[in-house]
Amino acid sequence: MSTAQRAGLLAATAAVLAAAFVLSRPEQPPRPAPATQTQTETQPETPTTATASPRREPDSGPLLTGARVRTIDVRRGEVVRFRVRSATREELHVHGYDILRPLPPGRTVAVRFRASIEGIFEVELHRSGRQIGELRVQP
Fold first, then answer.
1. Where are the alpha helices (H) located in the chain, listed in sequence order?
2. Sequential DSSP letters for 13-42
3. Which of 21, 29, 10, 9 is nearest to 117 (CA)?
4. Quick check: 131 and 124 in contact, CB under 8 A?
């Protein structure tokens, strides 16, 4: 086995182990410190969240609708927060984190998870394959 093949095998093994570690960890409650996020579009609204919360959290993050690709910047260890809305029945997919969430038509769904993997990850509407966001996790 060549050095390049050995390095490739080690990299693939590390990726599989990292994914297994992330998937096997129990979800931890979010920290109170808000994530640093880039939000250039604001729309006044009272969304309906997946948990049916009657009021919007002040740090619920940007709204991703697919009108354009939104960028969300956070540091590793922070909580990623954003909202998603689709006019049609869809499914949210956050690449790299393998997060899949159903999106009922016309409803706003709040998404929160800990940024445990560094890198740049596509956020898409899974059924249509349309990118709606880009998650950037810095060290």
1. 3-24
2. HHHHHHHHHHHHSPPPPPPSSPPP------
3. 21
4. yes
Sheet containing 63-64: order of strands? 63-64, 79-85, 108-114
The per-residue pLDDT for range 25-50, each reduced to its tens digit, is 555 444 444 444 443 333 333 333 33
Q: With beta carbons less than 8 A apart as the criterion, state whether 75 and 137 touch.
A: yes
**In the block, residue with structure tokens 């997919």:** 93
The sign of the torsion formed by the CA atoms of 87, 82, 102, 93 equals positive
9 secondary structure, DSSP code: H
Residue 53 lies in domain: 31-138
| CATH number of the domain bearing residue 94 | 2.60.40.420
Q: Which tens digits make up the pLDDT trace of 51-110? A: 344 444 556 789 999 899 999 999 999 999 999 999 999 999 999 999 999 999 999 999
Token pair of 30, please?
Answer: 């979010």
Counting the structural domains of the chain, the total is: 1
pLDDT recorded at residue 118: 96
